[in-house]
Amino acid sequence: MVKEISLADVPGLVGTETGLSDWIVVDQAMIDAFAHATNDHQFIHVDPERAASSPFGGTIAHGFLTLSLLSAMNYNSLPKVREQTMGINYGFENVRFLSPVKTGARIRGHFVLAEARFRGAGMLMTSYDVSIEIENEKKPALTAKWITIIQFDPKDRPENV
């Protein structure tokens, strides 16, 4: 993947996979830390003995933990926009948790640029169709549309947009 692009290049990438992240191992320590941070200590996440008798056969990652790892996957894989002064997480649409991420699984993010439109003098709103693949699984852990804003100095705005 390209590591750096110009602001003017972004609209031409619509419809293409612009990022494929490295694999991330979701281990019990990560799950426990997330449970502590969010105060979500449901047994299917933090109690391996009890979770062994669940339909999952062991502990699984929180769906929101999996979703939150998109930030690390983004930084790891998407090209940097030279003119960007700040990135803003605008939100998600259509988040679906399709398969559980079992403890010890490796996951990675796929990013397809779905839309890019300039707003105001110094903003480019982008939306990505994202999915998180689970190694050796047919169904992804999740799919979503992720909306972000690239902020830049208005003097760097490409002409004719």
TrEMBL record:
Say which species the protein is native to.
Answer: Rhizobium favelukesii
Q: What is the lineage of its organism?
A: Bacteria, Pseudomonadati, Pseudomonadota, Alphaproteobacteria, Hyphomicrobiales
The Gene Ontology terms for molecular function here are: enoyl-CoA hydratase activity
What's the protein here called? Dehydratase nodulation protein
Entry-linked CDD domains? NodN
First-level EC class: lyase
- Its gene name is nodN
Q: Which UniProt keywords apply?
A: Lyase
Mention any Pfam family matching this sequence: MaoC_dehydratas
* EC number(s) from the headed UniProt entry: 4.2.1.17
MaoC-like domain residues: 14-115
